[in-house]
Amino acid sequence: MTGWQHIAGQDDLNLDLIHRAEKLIAPYIMNTPVLRSPELDNSSGARLFFKCENLQHTGAFKFRGAIHALLNLTAAQRKAGVYTVSSGNHGAALAAAGRILNISVQVAVPTNAPSVKKQNIAQNGADIIEIEPGMAAREAFVAANQQQSERIFIPPYNHPLIMAGQGTAALELVKAVPELQVLMSPLGGGGLLSGTAMVGHSQNMAVFGVEPELANDAWLSLQAGSIQSARPPISICDGLLTNLGDHTFPIIQNYVDAVLLVSEDEVIVAMQQLWQALKVIVEPSAATVFAAVCKYPEHFSGKAVGLILSGGNLDVACLPWPVTRLEKAK
Amino acid sequence: MTGWQHIAGQDDLNLDLIHRAEKLIAPYIMNTPVLRSPELDNSSGARLFFKCENLQHTGAFKFRGAIHALLNLTAAQRKAGVYTVSSGNHGAALAAAGRILNISVQVAVPTNAPSVKKQNIAQNGADIIEIEPGMAAREAFVAANQQQSERIFIPPYNHPLIMAGQGTAALELVKAVPELQVLMSPLGGGGLLSGTAMVGHSQNMAVFGVEPELANDAWLSLQAGSIQSARPPISICDGLLTNLGDHTFPIIQNYVDAVLLVSEDEVIVAMQQLWQALKVIVEPSAATVFAAVCKYPEHFSGKAVGLILSGGNLDVACLPWPVTRLEKAK
């Protein structure tokens, strides 16, 4: 038998697991910088501290969870190799982590994944298998692999070891900025937010997750008290289209103050403002948090707010705002 | 009498002055991160360490020199206020430094300066005076101010205190990455490169400056043995259009191994590659160094190379490569 359930560390996510993850992955990850902007502070009315996981290896926080999962494999599991299904950042992160630890990685990629994200996976040395988009094809692929392969499935978010790895970003942030009163992260499958919430809650900070109105499955899930799907989940935020999982949902229920919704237009405006002011490239998913700060001042005004900028993987020749051509000299 | 010549620290630039600058400005500046990219290492054949001065306060290394100059003013000079002439990054840096130290700042800006850079100056609280482009209007403005105002002139690069401040970026870089064999910086007026060269030379590293072919005044100056102008200096690299000064030229003559020239097209390609791989926004001037690494492998192949990314101030809605529209979900 193979499968993610056979990775060590099956307990629920807890703060100690995040602290242990931090020590374990420290030699491999970048303790990413925390940036500030007087201009964005002024325009938002809050004191904003941006944790730049877009500058993390492979351009997203996903590398933290991926390397943490692989570091917890047994020698036999390492030898068998791993696989996952990912439309982008998790796949690239797992590929890079596998290369560093000399573990074979296979990534099933939906045919509609952004080409930059596919390239990112391939450049990091993983084998790519194309599958149809959607949960059905994904589950069929995983089921087939579990029967036919010795490889270990490394899920993108719904596992305590992955969630603990993602939580180390928040841990670094609160250590760097002890005066924080609020923590925020984007919310897709809930891996990043659950780790962030566990850390924020332990320090008596308010914690918010942000998701697109058009992929509001987590918001619906909290309303309903059970995991819901947004159908169809569509958004420019291609990293936030997944549903919650049975590991991430209860953490978010218990430790997140609220899920805030932002529109596509609000994400685009926020993304351009972040590029212009911070001089870093964030993908749409990452811009949701700043969009929410601007939209819901009642939660943030006058406060010290930590925002996790989750990733920066997109094609810089394909942008969601109108761009004129800067002419070169002749 | 007023004028830059009355700032303390008239000695020539030396390594000790840079070390003292580092201590003095440390509480005010950001020790900017050093980024790496396996992808850019692969494509260049060198090991590249990017010092991200685009993430420095006000988006450029210029803040280092500006705050260093102001910290060396007497109490009377601080009270009188300061002024400068700048098409962008130095003006914004001086404005921000003045605001922090409660010193009044006036910036004369050529009418052809990029509007984003003008905004950056105004946002940081300086008084802006528009003047005609070109050295003549600039010199007339300074001469008039010296007669009519008690304000101190803070030059953009041609002063040991400014050069020492800029050299602290290289000092931080070589401390963070002791194995460096080569240091590189863009070359405009020579403030950044002279500080960088002094630091690199002290560690037996090769040092290269990079300038655009269309603004090759420093390259011409080294050939001629005296300061030359490129006429007219035109380039997409709006930060590199100035001539060398009598303080920067001799340092560059003595401590820089070579000035490398890059074309406008090479700058644009390098800039897009840096955005895509590093997830940071660099302006054209800053991309020159990576363009040179790709163009002149004989100097860099197989070596550990430190590149100073000088700044990131540009309008992200006006880019030098073709951009298609990423459509939002509806």
UniProtKB/TrEMBL annotation, chains A, B:
- Alphabetical UniProt keywords: Lyase, Magnesium, Pyridoxal phosphate
Which SUPFAM superfamilies does the UniProt entry name for this protein? Tryptophan synthase beta subunit-like PLP-dependent enzymes
Write down the InterPro entries for this protein, in alphabetical order: Ser/Thr_deHydtase_PyrdxlP-BS, TrpB-like_PALP, TrpB-like_PALP_sf
> Start and end of every Tryptophan synthase beta chain-like PALP domain?
26-311
- List, in alphabetical order, the GO biological process terms annotated in this UniProt record: D-serine biosynthetic process
Q: Does the keyword Magnesium apply?
A: yes
Task: Enumerate the GO terms in the molecular function aspect.
Answer: ATP binding; L-serine ammonia-lyase activity; magnesium ion binding; pyridoxal phosphate binding; serine racemase activity; threonine racemase activity
The record's similarity note reads: Belongs to the serine/threonine dehydratase family.
What this protein is called in its record is Serine/threonine dehydratase
Taxonomic source organism: Aliidiomarina iranensis
